[in-house]
Design goal:
Blueprint: H1 3-11, H2 13-26, H3 28-32, H4 39-46, H5 50-62, E1 66-68, E2 74-76, H6 78-81, H7 92-97, H8 101-108, H9 110-116, H10 120-125, H11 129-135, H12 137-152, H13 155-161, E3 169-173, H14 179-187, E4 192-197, H15 212-215, E5 218-222, E6 232-238, H16 246-258, E7 260-270, H17 279-291, H18 300-309, E8 313-318, E9 325-330
Parallel strand pairs: 3-4, 3-6, 4-5, 6-7
Antiparallel strand pairs: 1-2, 7-9, 8-9
Helix pairs in contact: 2-5, 11-12, 13-14
This protein binds S-adenosylmethionine.
S-adenosylmethionine (SAM) is lined by residues 130, 147, 151, 174-176, 197-198, 201, 224-226, 238-240, 243.
């Protein structure tokens, strides 16, 4: 492969992101789910200028996201199907996150953070991502939908990887819409669980797909993990600590430790920077944490330091067949 061609596609990758994101925003894959559409039909259905839509589709067909039949009608390919709203683990919300101008602008400001070490989003917009989302319901809805979709891809595997037999109650701290909690409750029928999050993210009910056996053991509470969290035998923290600085992580872990029942455990579910086979994914996510919430990805040893700072003892690192591992933080001395 020509090295300069590789470099060129790295440099211009944002154009590809923008094209896929625009298709997601327009809902092209949803429209094509019912079958192939002529360009004029598709433009009318998604509210687009036909000539310009053809230009966008030309790129997306070259990328293999859509195809065109001999009569010139557009159709979803396997990639395009992944941008449908109604497929399990849909990537449409992820693509739509880049439609938020504040997110797009923050990435354009990355060099500021590299120079200063400051969180990009806050340095540029004067507000952190959580307060911004509280003020921008559309961006908030897309973010929460994205977390739900991404977590739905791994929730069952995480639930299966950990032995909850000795535990009775679990709180999904910063659990968003609580999709991980639903997987855990579905897999471990003796557990009752609570999803805990900021008001802007807390669901009012389990997802429509949750079985009755989960609904009856499910509850939700709003609040801030810098103040208090509901008591439980296990506190799940999935992709929460990576949003925060070390100091703030220790504050969150300390809040959890204080409300753990005797013999309880904090279960940190995160990617690791030093996990073989996941290096690039974790490194790119680390930059995302720098740019957006102002956190970072970490190594196992760095998590051990956070646990120690919060008065927790690090237990096992439990592998899952997904991008995350489960790290135990134990309140009791060995
Ligand atoms: C990256 S998301 C992870 C969501 C979920 N655990 C998952 O993996 O799908 C981080 C979550 O932390 C929540 N959060 C942020 N600040 C919080 C606070 N002070 N108290 C409680 N939750 C908070 C956000 O609303 C968001 O749902």
């Amino acid at each position: 492969m020509d090295a300069s061609a590789d470099l060129r596609s790295m440099i211009t990758g944002l154009r590809v992101s923008a094209a896929v994101s625009a298709a997601a925003e327009l809902g092209i894959s949803d429209e094509l789910a019912a079958g192939p559409r002529e360009p004029g039909q598709l433009a009318a259905a998604v509210g687009a200028d036909e000539d310009t839509l053809r230009r966008l589709m030309r790129v997306l067909m070259a990328l293999g996201v859509y195809s065109e039949d001999v009569t010139g009608r557009y159709a979803n390919t396997a990639l395009g199907e992944g941008l449908r709203s109604d497929v399990p683990g849909s990537l449409r919300p992820l693509a739509r996150t880049f439609q938020d101008p504040a997110t797009w602008a923050a990435w354009g400001h990355l060099v500021h953070s590299v120079r200063t070490g400051e969180n990009t989003f806050e340095a540029l917009h004067g507000i952190d991502v959580w307060a911004y989302r509280a003020e921008h319901p559309e961006a908030n809805a897309v973010f929460n939908a994205n977390m739900t979709a991404l977590t739905s891809r791994m929730g069952d595997a995480v639930a299966a990887a950990y032995d909850f037999a000795a535990l009775s109650t679990v709180v999904d701290v910063g659990g968003g819409h609580g999709i991980l909690l639903e997987s855990v409750l579905a897999r471990h029928e003796h557990l009752t669980g609570t999803v805990f999050d900021l008001l802007q993210a807390t669901p009012t009910a389990p997802s429509a797909a949750a079985p009755a056996s989960v609904v009856s053991r499910w509850s939700a509470v709003s609040g801030s993990f810098f103040e208090s969290v509901p008591a439980a035998d296990a506190h799940l923290l999935k992709k929460v600590l990576h949003d925060w600085s070390d100091e703030r992580c220790i504050a969150i872990l300390t809040t959890c430790r204080k409300s753990l029942n005797p013999g309880g455990v904090v279960l940190v579910v995160e990617s690791l920077l030093d996990r073989p086979g996941h290096e690039l994914e974790a490194a790119v996510s680390d930059l995302n944490m720098l740019v957006m919430p102002g956190g970072r990805e970490r190594t196992v040893d760095e998590f051990a330091v956070l646990f120690a700072g919060a008065g927790l003892r690090m237990g096992r690192v439990v592998e899952t067949p997904t991008e995350v591992v489960i790290i135990e933080g134990l309140a009791e001395p060995p």
